[in-house]
């Protein structure tokens, strides 16, 4: 009984406590460890919002930060539309079915959007806005991200662009740019939230409009982390010009703009991208990640912890009350990173202008290549048909 035990300790002293010498060392150590873990995990989102029936488009929603964000919103009743590279992947069907069962929400499905192919982005976005009346749209969350290991040689996408630049910035920019009419067409009483993800690496990015997309720069060695930081910087900066364009739009009904843009820094996480970065993208170096796991577990956030700021951006009324871009970190609206570009609307507008020029040039070249491929394919088919016809018309050989 607790009373008898306490009485024994009172009479005989602390030595009556079993394993006292071990506990007096272990308990303070475990308490300190818990306190450190609690601190580095960051704040928790305390806002709740009825998401029933609200339509949410999300990129990168099947792993890491995006998966946890999608799960939380689906549990609140939101209709989740995953924008994925390939809707025919077998695991995707199982993933969606498991999520439907876990959240008791059947309004979850996927659409094909390959951010490494601007033509794929345009096809989806054009199909989405080609509706009368306009389709409902309450939230767009851009979580998809590519982080190349340091040892990775320079690669290119279908559009001949650096993968990190195209996925982390250009693909999302084009998606939002084409969907803009559908966003503006939403009823004035329906708040539309656009949530973009950034990180501290944006501080390392170079603002270089002369070579947008790392097409001309030729460093002695390819440094993927610099491209990653630049892409995250551009995505965050474009959010400010995007918000101004929506806010300056004059609706025919005279109602004010009800579009709200947030840039979220979820913090350092033990994400799949982090694991790939640490192991240099090599399975043989997985032991490095395992050796560092205790430190990463203590000092880095999990996907659940990182998703708290995403949930805050999706639910907090402060995002709506703040009539400007909300830069969110650790479940708080904070000042943007200490870079002059965040306070320079002219540079932000120039970035958007140059991005439009780059997209136009890339899509033009891609269209030429598609047409060339189509003609070559048709020519090949015609040749095969002629060959089959010749073989068919040949007289049977005599015995």
From TrEMBL:
The transmembrane residues are: 277-300
Q: Which domain of life is it from?
A: Eukaryota
Positions of region (Disordered): 370-399
Q: Which UniProt keywords apply?
A: Membrane, Oxidoreductase, Transmembrane, Transmembrane helix
Cite the InterPro entries for this sequence: NAD(P)-bd_dom_sf, SDR_fam
Example GO molecular function: oxidoreductase activity
Family of the protein in this entry: Belongs to the short-chain dehydrogenases/reductases (SDR) family.
What's this protein's name? Oxidoreductase
